[in-house]
Amino acid sequence: MPASAIVQNTQSRQPSLSNAEVDSVVRKFQSSYADTFDRRDAKGMAALFTDDATFQNGGEVMQGRATIEANLVRLMAKLPPGTRLEDRATSSRVIAPNVIACHGISHRIAPNGIPTEMYFVRVLVRQGDRWLLAATQIARPSTLPKSSSQPK
Hints:
By secondary structure, the chain is α+β, with helices and mostly antiparallel strands. The protein has a single domain, classed as Nuclear Transport Factor 2, Chain: A (Roll). Helices cover 31% and strands 39% of the residues. It has helices spanning 3-10, 19-38, 42-46, 65-78, and strands at 49-57, 60-63, 84-96, 99-109, 115-127, 130-139. A hairpin with a 2-residue loop joins strand 1 and strand 2. The longest helix is centred in the first third of the chain and has 20 residues, at 19-38.
């Protein structure tokens, strides 16, 4: 079922989640996401996405679970063994019944301990008893120097 249909079909049927429930959903999802990444389980990670999910990584946009899985296979093959993922949600909230928006910071940590910092936005939707990723965007911090008018 497309994510948009889930939102439309459930808006009046489900009570809103408490902040504690949102935090629990996000933590559990992040744990599963990082675990599949750490194990280089592209199929398992792709299973965390809806069938029609959108994944944007930098300038590349992928649509659909099968395309996302193929991309994850290529990405994971390039990573040094032992690279792991750590996510930290900085903000999460219900944006509609059964829909959570989450912003956060990811660190892809190489075996030498050097992290690559990335920012993410994720849209999680409830399908049955599971929370799946309907859309995500990953961006890297800007390498441009801050202007003198920006706080340091």
